[in-house]
Design a protein that fits this description.
This is Cytochrome ubiquinol oxidase subunit I. With 494 residues, the protein is mainly alpha-helical. The chain is built from 17 helices and eight strands.
């Protein structure tokens, strides 16, 4: 702890508030990213099912999910814009020196963001104004635009982790920039696919969790069953895929960022036959307090054999590696991510076993309780993945080329702390408004469904498709029509 205090004492006063401000805005924005990247894909899957099978329930779900997608995108615009300003305002040293090398990634993300906004507008507009299949095919580029945005962001982040595509002049400024190399860095592939599947997985589990809660509250209709089954099936298929991609990404870190790997695994000295510690706390003398020790497993996971040499934290000076506290934070974040991923595999196997044996979802309440929790757990792992990536890279903002302390703004620390307080207040209001809007939409949809069921007992409440004109009351239905006609459809509130 003493060495950590010494290192912190030698940093600018504004470094801590700048870090806290960036950490808060990133941690808040990243909660929305799974829905921006993956919800369009899940919505279109449901939309395609509705059109192919002429299923009004599937179409109703797709339409309602598209409304949530639009609200979420609007909130994402706010939080994403704040982040774009913070890169330049908080870290001018990095953007000023290295912006010409890796800035294209941010440009790609900006264009994708613009394209996604246009496509979402067309998709929402087209529900009752376009022919069904025309409407669907116009929306197909929407998930591709989301993947394009993820491409830009991960290209920039992977460059910060494994910078390349330039040479340095006598003053240490980058020259001879090779854009292709700057984008496709050694760690880009593993990081990109791990990120994309994580976003799909998280969005699918969260959406399924909403309907799992409905099932637990006694809503056993086809609407809730289908709303649960499709996204949960996507998540169950992707869970083992993500586990393998995560293993590949960790091995890429082992080869390309050995000090970060040492921090996430709490490896103090370079050695072979290195044990794996699940959780535990690193001490200043290199010992580990607490945690579960598994002999030789770290070397086996890194190189498939116990004799694999794993680089330790002490292979570089203390000023060039994460502090004891930072290493412990990165280690816990990584272990939480791995633990949740392992539990999700068990949940996916439970679901697969039920379908193999009974061609049906598991019927027990405990399965749906676990499914409801899975979405929240995935959001936690998204946060943990970001913490592992960013905290494990410390003290470098550009790995082995620029320290965070050299990139920070000259703005007074007091001003940054005040800005942090303002941003927290604004974000609480923004996310509170987002939650209020979504809950209001849920209430309106439920009233619409219950009203349709009461008004038209002979017709399923979700039988009216989102396409075509809205249902109007029969001329004689001012009081009580013979067929129980109603002026509202089950999708009218969407």
């Amino acid at each position: 702890m003493f060495s950590t205090a010494v290192l912190l004492a030698n940093t600018p006063d504004q470094l801590l508030p700048a870090r806290e401000l960036m950490a808060f805005t990133l941690a808040s924005h990243i909660l929305l990213v799974p829905f921006g990247v993956a919800l369009p894909f899940i919505t279109l899957l449901m939309h395609h099912r509705g059109l192919r099978r002429n299923d009004p329930v599937a179409l109703l779900l797709a339409r309602r999910w598209s409304a949530v997608m639009a609200v979420q995108f609007a909130i994402g615009i706010i939080t994403g814009t704040v982040l774009s300003f913070e890169f330049g305002l908080l870290w001018p040293g990095m953007m000023g020196r290295w912006g010409d090398v890796f800035g294209l990634g941010f440009g790609v993300e900006a264009w994708a963001f613009f394209l996604e906004a246009v496509l979402i507008a067309i998709y929402l507009y087209g529900w009752r104004r376009l022919k069904p299949w025309t409407h669907f095919w116009l929306a197909v580029p929407l998930p591709l635009a989301a993947l394009m945005g993820a491409f830009g962001i991960i290209a920039a982040n992977s460059w910060m982790n494994t910078p390349q595509g330039f040479s340095l002049d006598a003053q240490g400024k980058p020259i001879n920039v090779d854009v292709r190399q700057a984008i496709f860095t050694p760690i880009f592939g593993p990081e990109y696919w791990h990120f994309v599947v994580a976003m799909l997985l998280t969005a699918a589990y969260v959406v399924a969790g909403v309907y799992a809660v409905g099932w637990l509250r006694g809503r056993r209709d086809r609407y809730h069953r289908l709303g649960f089954t499709l996204p949960f099936t996507v998540a169950a298929i992707l869970t083992p895929v993500q586990f393998m991609l995560g293993d590949s990404a960790a091995r890429a870190v082992f080869h390309k960022q050995p000090v970060k790997f040492a921090a996430t695994e709490l490896v103090w000295k370079t050695d072979t036959h290195v044990p794996e510690y699940m959780f535990g706390t690193l001490n200043s003398d290199g010992t580990i307090s607490g945690g579960l020790k598994i002999p030789q497993l770290d070397s086996i996971l890194a190189g498939f054999k116990p004799s694999t040499k794993v680089t330790g934290l002490t292979s570089v000076p203390a000023s060039d590696r994460p502090t004891i506290v930072q290493a412990t934070i990165a280690h816990w974040a990584f272990d939480i991510m791995v633990t949740v991923g392992s539990l999700l595999i068990l949940l996916a196997l439970w679901y697969a076993w039920s379908w193999w044996r009974h061609r049906d979802n598991p019927g027990g309440r405990w399965f749906y309780r676990c499914a409801a929790i899975a979405g929240v757990a995935c959001l936690v792992t998204v946060e943990c993945g970001w913490i592992t990536t960013e905290v494990g890279r410390q003290p470098w903002i550009v790995y082995n080329h620029m320290r965070v302390s050299a990139a920070v703004t000259d703005t007074a620390a007091g001003s940054l702390w005040a800005m942090l307080g303002i941003v927290i207040a604004v974000y609480v209001a923004v996310f509170g408004s987002f939650l209020a809007v979504v809950l209001k939409m849920r209430t309106r949809w439920r009233i619409a469904d219950e009203g349709s069921a009461a008004a038209r007992p002979g017709l399923h409440p979700e039988a009216d498709t989102p396409y075509g004109p809205r249902s109007e009351p029969e001329p004689a239905a001012a009081g009580a029509a013979p067929d129980g006609g109603s002026g509202h459809t089950s999708g009218g509130a969407s």
